[in-house]
Specification:
Length: 220
């Protein structure tokens, strides 16, 4: 099965205004709101889409059946799904291929490879757009040392940003990493109070740190 990918986006919503004044006031406000909404919709429709993907088998991730239709993108956000038509800067005929939100890899070990090559083609070409790292061991916390680029998640994700990663990235605080930070590589049980207390404090600080990074981009 072949997949096409587009970044996910939330549809906008319009606020509902209520007024407790007279009938004329309520009608006037309703007309103003309706007129403004119509003008907004007309302006949106007048603007061409950045991308229009047609003839796609759309699976939206809700568990419902697939539908055949189009997906429009404007300004980096999904502007329409289903029966969508209109002018577009770029139109792509999906040829009946599946079009879906990106997949999540919940157990990834791309911690360091993303720093080497942010394109992440081994994942992107399989439809994966979000990776979760930090199983057992994680990239932080680390003790300062020669040649170390970071010691916490803030430093790590700053390095990820510089690599222009093509995927969204989240990390657990690895149990093994916390143990190593507190006890080193000693093969022994932790002492009841000092080691456990230090590990608990370190885990809490790491969990409260910036351990999530996301992007709307699907390319470098």
């Amino acid at each position: 099965m072949t997949f096409l990918m587009i970044p996910s986006a939330k549809k906008g919503s319009y606020p509902f205004f209520d007024h407790e004044g007279g009938t004329v006031t309520r009608v006037a406000i309703a007309l103003l709101v309706a007129g403004g909404a119509l003008t907004f919709v007309q302006a949106q429709q007048a603007r061409p889409f950045d991308l229009l993907i047609t003839n796609a088998r759309i699976i939206d991730g809700t568990g419902g059946p697939s539908v055949t239709g189009s997906v429009a993108v404007r300004g980096g956000r999904i502007a329409g799904v289903g029966r969508v038509s209109g002018a577009a800067t770029r139109t792509l005929n999906a040829g009946g291929k599946v079009l879906s939100p990106g997949f999540i890899d919940p157990h990834s070990h791309s911690d360091l490879t993303l720093l080497t090559d942010g394109n992440a083609e081994s994942k992107i070409r399989q439809g994966v757009t979000t990776e979760v790292i930090g199983e057992s061991g994680s990239v932080a916390p680390r003790k300062p040392g020669a040649g170390q680029e970071w010691t916490d998640f803030t430093g790590y994700f700053a390095a990820i940003e510089r690599s222009k990663s093509a995927v969204n990235l989240l990390s657990y605080v690895g149990l093994g990493q916390v143990r190593e930070y507190v006890m080193g590589h000693d093969e022994r049980a932790p002492t009841p109070k000092p080691s456990c207390a230090r590990a608990s404090r370190r885990r809490s600080r790491s969990a409260n740190a910036r351990a999530c990074r996301s992007t709307c981009s699907t390319s470098r």
